[in-house]
Amino acid sequence: MSTESPLPPWTVLSAEPKLRTQRRFRHLMGGTPPRLISVSERGAAAVRGWFAGHPIGANRRHQDLARRLVEAGMAHIDYDASSPVDFEADPAGNDDGAGTTEPAFSVVIPVRDDADGVRATLQCLRSAHGRRPLAKVVVVDDGSSPALEPSLLLEAGPPELVVLRNDRPRGPAAARNHGAAITFSPIVAFIDAGVTFDPTDFTRLFRWWPEPVMAVAPRVRSRPDPGLVARYERARSPLDMGSVPSLVGPKRAVPYVPSTFLAVHRAALATAGGFDESLRFGEDVDLVWRLSDLGWVQYRADVAVCHPPRPTVGRLMRQRFQYGSSAAALGRRHGAAVTPFRLQWSALGAILTLTGRPLVAVAAMAATALRLRSRLSSLPDPGAMAAVVVSRAWWHQLNGLASALARPWWPLLGLGVLWPPTRRRCTAVAMAAVGRRLVDRNDTPSPIIDLPLGALDDLSYGAGVWAGAVRSGTAVPLLPGRPATGDRDTATGR
Description:
- The chain has 18 helices and 13 strands.
- By secondary structure, it is of the alpha/beta class.
- The chain has three domains: 13-82; 98-207 and 212-311, Spore Coat Polysaccharide Biosynthesis Protein SpsA, Chain A; 347-492, no CATH class.
- Strand 3 and strand 4 (35-38) form a beta hairpin.
- Helix 15 packs across helix 17.
């Protein structure tokens, strides 16, 4: 499985929603972090056709350009329009020599003490079975007490169901590895107990993947249950990566995807070494980052599944604390990928804005825009493009800094609030950091719910980060990251 293979000729692309262009697509600005890419006249003509719905075609240079736009976050693959055939007829299956093709994927469901949840997931798989046969469905009972009744699971699930039992809990990573070890299909999908989905969406997810894609994850929405916590989770679930598709990895718009629903090519899973069983939390982020080193991990926002929300405020805070506590172990494995805030050239404007110096921030940004304008002199309107680049970079850094202050850095901010000389300014910064949630609201019901539960969410996660850092003896998840090599030039990359 080559990570440098071109995208297939029938691939159809769509533009990233915030993409800006000049001179009929000769110059494209967007992505995360924001950058500018310039292309030739022929390349611009090809891009215009792609964004109008035409396949990328067989020209190798055009295929390389298409891949570059996807990797930069400026374009996304339109999977529904791209697939030339149903995945059921795709040659990715293995011919057994008798003229039949092995089904393309298997499913592994780890579960502990959630019989109702696993039955709900199995019933969805049974509905999907008629549309697309599964090679195998493996339920791994990870030490439930009492043990799950296999007969009830077999009754609820599709015909290919196998039930395994661990006498004692070994953790979700070990359960997933145990289940994957007895499957042999080209793709294995890990699905948590309690996840429900529409069979049509489930089938769409498995129709076709281009070869660079190592793994695919759908959008995970919180189930629309009644209650304040459920309404908050519907808009602010940490499992929901948003409504825009993306490649996944550190420094990308979608930095990780959860293993709530994660489909992986078996060859990539074997190369990555499977889930790290020493990790109790964060094992999915760890695997996803290792897979992203091998190729593409694709977040499919056009396909959604549902997961039950936390039932109480206490359970919500406990979950966020546990997620935060995984940052230290991830930092030992992946270094600065877990940094709460990465300093970039636009950080000064963000810092000045949050510390109550907006006029100085505007002056610093204007100076940066003037310097950048000279580097963009070949554009028809370099001043406008420089202003867009600087403002987007400022907003990106402002959001990141506010999030870091509200989550892992809140103890330091709290000390500033308590210390009289800095109390006024730090209180204003704290209010801005908490209030960041109101700027980009999805379907949050009201600030009355979002602000207090959001503050508890942030405090719990940040406390988990500190607890994990102290326990592991590392400060990596608490320290700001330095600009990576080439960050200075990402705004004008060509």
